[in-house]
């Protein structure tokens, strides 16, 4: 039997119910234990045990077969990888002068080819230098707890890093969280400053209205005072006329009794005029009282206007203080962010087309380099289980504007928008719940 396919593994998505999975690559019918199985669930790999967790039946022609899970519910969900790992032995014994064993030789040759395929497939998953590289005999240094790997200054070999990568990452995450908290506080203070400013403007408007009312009341008081003075003048005139009438009546009575009737009539008229004068005086007194009331109202309005002006000044002072605090928080946030950036060695993932966030992008910078518009999609937690608390930085490296999108089940909260504002704009995505993110940075609507 020939080995016509270079495939040595296949993958199946488990549902916790289905117990069988088929494969189509070449295998030795005499060695079902060469078929291995592993399950990847939430970034954790579990290697299954033959007969305990699964059994294998290889097709009679050696091409493909069936894997049967002993307890699919116990195996659970995830991705099942079925692969061939041929035993590195040679058990055939060729005797001299015997009939040529063609089938045995062909199976041994098939086994060699399958072993070579498995070695090649394994090497393809290993890190390797490009064919143009002149570096040879590249060895890894002895492991050092908590340290990472980096190139030496001559770029001829790998060495351990000086610092503990996990400790630096924790410190960077702490600084980033502090910066975020400071930024949120600054945003809150800015919002309060805006509210105080709005309140101050409202009080200032009220003060202006009160001042206008006070001026109108003062004008009414002046008008009432003028009316009172006019009424007083009219009363004085009426009183003088009454005195003249009385005088005339007395003279007429003395000169002639014939004019007594006329004098009486004149006296009556004089009395009527005197009564009118008294009425005018009463009216003048009423106008004076009204004028005094208007003056008192005007004084009250002036006092209210003064109080409103004082309150507006107090709110303006508070708004200025809040604005100063907001600026201080903003500067603190910028300083914390700079410290976080300075203490973090950020890995860069450069992409040139529409991109979906992956688990490996956590604590990395995604460089989106495209001449045209490009989208960055945040997947649901069920699709890509990015841990809550993860921070992913993005940058519009190219001229194409970046739009942040979701698959419809994810919520992204942003006070600015979900598009980068310009080339080289930098923003950050922070996962705060299962399917909830925050977007902040140089963004626009």
Question: Quick recap of the structure?
Answer:
The chain has 445 residues and is an alpha/beta fold. It has helices at residues 72-75, 102-124, 165-255, 260-342, and strands spanning 9-15, 20-26, 35-41, 44-47, 54-58, 63-69, 77-84, 147-151, 158-164, 347-351, 355-356, 364-368, 374-378, 391-396, 402-406, 411-413, 419-420, 426-433, 436-441, 443-444. The two termini are 64 Å apart.
What does this structure look like?
This protein is α/β, with parallel strands linked by helices and 445 residues long. The protein folds into three domains: 9-124, no CATH class; 171-342; 347-444, Sandwich (Jelly Rolls). Helix content is 45%, strand content 24%. It has helices at 72-75, 102-124, 165-255, 260-342, and strands spanning 9-15, 20-26, 35-41, 44-47, 54-58, 63-69, 77-84, 147-151, 158-164, 347-351, 355-356, 364-368, 374-378, 391-396, 402-406, 411-413, 419-420, 426-433, 436-441, 443-444. A hairpin with a 6-residue loop joins strand 8 and strand 9 (158-164). It is rod-shaped, with a radius of gyration of 49 Å. The two termini are 64 Å apart.
Structural class based on helices, strands and sheet pairing: alpha/beta
- State mean pLDDT (0 to 100 scale): 81
Largest sheet features: 6 strands, mixed
Instruction: Give the number of DSSP strands.
Output: 20
**Computed CA radius of gyration, to the nearest angstrom:** 49 Å
Strand content: 15-25%
Tell me, what's the shape? rod-shaped
Strand order of the largest sheet: 10-12-14-18-19-16
Pattern of helices and strands: EEEEEEHEHEEHHEEEEEEEEEEE
Distance between the termini: 64 Å
What is the total domain count?
Answer: 3
pLDDT < 50 stretches: 255-268, 336-344
Q: How many H/I helices?
A: 4
Helix percent reads 40-55%
